[in-house]
Design goal:
Elements lengths: L4 H11 L19 H8 L7 E3 L20 E6 L3 H8 L2 H16 L7 E5 L7 E3 L19 E2 L2 E2 L13 E8 H5 L13 H11 L8 E5 L2 H8 L13 H7 L4 E4 L19 H10 L2 E4 L4 H10 L3 E5 L10 E3 L3 E3 L1
Parallel strand pairs: 7-8, 8-9, 9-10
Antiparallel strand pairs: 1-13, 2-3, 4-10, 4-12, 5-6, 7-11, 11-13
Helix pairs in contact: 1-9, 3-4
The chain binds acetylphosphate.
The site of acetylphosphate (UVW) has 8 residues, from loops.
């Protein structure tokens, strides 16, 4: 099942979208989301049912297993007890200062507040990969130079660039777990092929249209919630699904697993790693959403037989970032 570099290059040449929306384009396949498409997506809201697709950002997140990313560290910087605590236990100079202004303020005012901060990789949990996240041979999507991503951030293709698109579109859930009759989780070793995606589309009686955001349920997140094991591999999209996404003019793809594509290198391309990332982010300009929580959405779609919905998934607008957290919602 391992592809060769020449298979990879052939696919890359066929699906490369460079120049398709102009030489300065930084949106890639999000260009398929037109105003008409956004209106079509809004028309899918029938029951007013809101289904959250975001996982928790907490110390109990999926990171840590691979060492290079950590879970969020959440720190309280002010809490409601600080005023009286500092007055009683703070150093003398602070007690005097606090006594003179802060505690006087708090003494005759019912207002209290709490503040906090978070330190975390932007890829810690539910996220979008920006187009600047993955590249090869010194070029990013649309031919932008790889060195335009500097230690100050991405000058091209940073996540903030997609703000103009929302991101809002018609979402379509493809439920691989249900299709395979798996209990909860697609076990490792069986990548999801383009043919299987077609079978699921037929089984669910749903159409994939230009500008859709395809959301793939593999059960990984549900499994993670019960085991706490973020290192579990699972199965993902076979790298040749990049051509399927291209053919259907999909605007973006997201999944409930750690990298959307199948993590097993023996199902990839000989001599490289994560070939679907390379094809989607760098050649097509198609963003990948990872660690989405699709359990509730899959249950709802199975119950009403409707696999399309309005998807609202704006990433946090971190300037120059190569990815960002998101708390997506599906609305039916
Ligand atoms: C890499 O591609 C390195 O990471 P991710 O799976 O988060 O996109």
């Amino acid at each position: 099942m391992t592809g060769t570099m020449s298979d990879f290059r052939k696919a890359a040449d066929e699906l490369r979208n460079w120049g398709r929306w102009g030489d300065d384009d930084e949106l890639g396949t999000l260009n398929f989301i037109t105003p008409k498409k956004v209106a079509e997506a809004a028309g899918l809201v029938k029951r007013g049912k809101v289904i959250p697709l975001g996982g928790d950002f907490s110390s109990g997140g999926p990171q840590g297993a691979f060492k290079f990313r950590q879970n969020p560290v959440h720190v309280m910087t002010i809490d409601g007890g600080d005023a009286s605590t500092l007055v009683r236990y703070g150093p003398e100079w602070l007690r005097n200062a606090v006594a003179s202004d802060v505690s006087a303020f708090f003494a005759d005012n019912p207002f209290r507040f709490n503040d906090d901060m978070i330190v975390m990789p932007l890829q810690a949990a539910t996220q979008w990969d920006a187009l600047s996240h993955v590249y090869y041979e010194d070029k990013l999507y649309n031919g932008f130079p790889a060195d335009s991503v500097t230690s100050f951030g991405a000058y091209h293709l940073g996540i903030e660039k997609v703000d103009v698109k929302g991101i809002v579109s018609r979402g379509v859930l493809l439920d691989v777990v249900a299709h395979r009759g798996a209990e909860v989780f697609c076990e490792p070793g069986r990548p999801i092929t383009p043919d299987e995606l077609d079978e699921i589309v037929t089984r669910q009686n749903v159409e994939i249209r230009s500008g859709d955001i395809v959301v793939v349920h593999t059960g990984w997140w549900t499994c993670f919630l019960s085991t706490g094991d973020g290192g579990q591999a699972g199965s993902g999209l076979h790298w040749t699904c990049a051509s399927w996404l291209h053919r259907h003019e999909v605007a973006a793809v997201a999944a409930d697993n750690l990298m959307v594509e199948d993590p097993d290198p023996s199902n990839g391309v000989e001599g490289t790693f994560l070939p679907m990332h390379m094809l989607c982010l760098r050649d097509m300009g198609l963003m990948l959403g990872e660690y989405w929580d699709l359990g509730q959405l899959a249950a709802d779609c199975a119950a009403d037989g409707i696999y399309e919905f309005q998807l609202v998934a704006p990433p946090l607008k971190v300037v120059g970032a190569v990815g960002a957290p998101v708390s997506p919602i599906a609305i039916k």
